[in-house]
């Protein structure tokens, strides 16, 4: 059971104060019966709530697959830049957040949800969830680079050592600029860029392709998003 005003506020109808006004104006019904009390209790999923004749279905969790574009920050709010949450224009919940972060200039897969338990499972280093990236880097990636990443590299600074867990590096094309695919199971700050910097290379372009069982939908252009399919959600859970 949930208060009627919270039900409507959770579903993005308005703020708690705004939905209270709608209720007191007689614009809200529960199972076809007009309700005038904001604290009226509603059984989620068992009763039908409508506002001005439009049904409002309650959703406790929302899950969106976003192809994050460059120039957008992985945050819930920002005073200067557009955030990944701003891109989800069809959202109902106001408590959505990105699962992990991608740098401002990094593209690719980002899961947006309000399911904290799922986020913890995907981000916890103890869960060993694979995160795969495609990158173009300045420098020649070699067998030695692959071996170094497989053993772990020191991405620390003058403050001390900071070794990564073993990572899987696939060299797609080696040359002055190399094309690679990298799979890691961590999410340290600027980790991919720092890993290549540790072996004398510089990341020019970076895109996350997958996270656990969730794979970027190549049909989606940067900035586009969609809700997860039932199959995707089942695999993640």
From TrEMBL:
Pfam families: PseudoU_synth_2, S4. SMART domains: S4. It is an enzyme of class 5 (isomerase). InterPro entries: PsdUridine_s_RsuA/RluB/E/F_cat (IPR042092), PsdUridine_synth_cat_dom_sf (IPR020103), PsdUridine_synth_RsuA/RluA (IPR006145), PsdUridine_synth_RsuA/RluB/E/F (IPR000748), PsdUridine_synth_RsuA/RluB_CS (IPR018496), RsuA_PseudoU_synthase (IPR050343), S4_RNA-bd (IPR002942), S4_RNA-bd_sf (IPR036986). Keywords: Isomerase, RNA-binding. Its EC number is 5.4.99.-. The keyword ATP-binding does not apply. It comes from the Bacteria. NCBIfam families: pseudouridine synthase. Belongs to the pseudouridine synthase RsuA family. This is Pseudouridine synthase. It comes from Dorea acetigenes.
